Amino acid sequence: MDYKKIDFDRELGGGKETYNHILGDWWYNRSNNSSHQYAYLKIADHMKSFFSGIPDKIIDYGCGGGNLLNHLYQHFPTSFLTGIDGSSMLLKEARKQLQHLDEKWEQKVKLVETELPDFSLPLGKADLLVFAFPNIVPNPNKYEFDEEFLKDEEFDVAEYLSKTHEPNPEDEPLNEDPETIYDSLMTDRIISYNLRGLLKRGGICIRVEYANSEREELTELAKQRLSFEEGSLQQPIDGYRLKPFFALLNSGYVESRVIEDVYHQTRDKDDKKGGYHLTTLYAL
Description:
By secondary structure, the chain is α/β, with parallel strands linked by helices. The protein has one domain: Vaccinia Virus protein VP39 (Rossmann fold, 3-Layer(aba) Sandwich), CATH 3.40.50.150. The chain is built from nine helices and seven strands. It has a seven-stranded mixed sheet with strand order 3-2-1-4-5-7-6. It is globular. The model has no long low-confidence stretch (mean pLDDT about 90).
């Protein structure tokens, strides 16, 4: 597929149905290449080595075509898996993968088609959750979340972080205005609330997100924005101290050509090099 023919800005504004068409084809091809397949194996290995004991319930949030589910099915043979995604086309491919593994797969796996984030999903059930290579297209007009989560100060902190400038101007992201940053901060935080709500207290969330460097190499502002988005922010910001809903346990950086997913969307040559953060969070 020639990604240069895809208008990502237009397609990503089309809601979850866009992944039933050209973006679904793009992602299906990307997620099946060797870089992604190796990454999925490393993610599943990390989850198995990190989680002590046997998780009863595992969620793959934004499971796409089921490549990671495939590995989780084999790594956790006695766990019940739930794959959640907004694309019927990609979930159809996930079913095909699982059928090739085991004719009784439906006894151990449930596939759920829904627009994400979805706050009507069963709460507090999962022991382990993975959110890998997010390409979610949320609909801001359909958020249905428990308003006890979001406080006024969260919007204030997001606004502060979106308008704050780096001490070194060369560290500033290009072509990002405060409104765009603010929308990204709040969207990702709302998704993180959804992730936390699906987990039991003490459950483990594995986040796998595109990155160009080690987490430790990020600027202080970039770290604050990332912690705010994932719900692990500990330090006060502009006089506000938010209650974290995750504790950061560890975060590693893996160089990988999966970063080219981002390059396809941005056409920025800087996004040709990088990889992903493999972050482990503890549900508070």
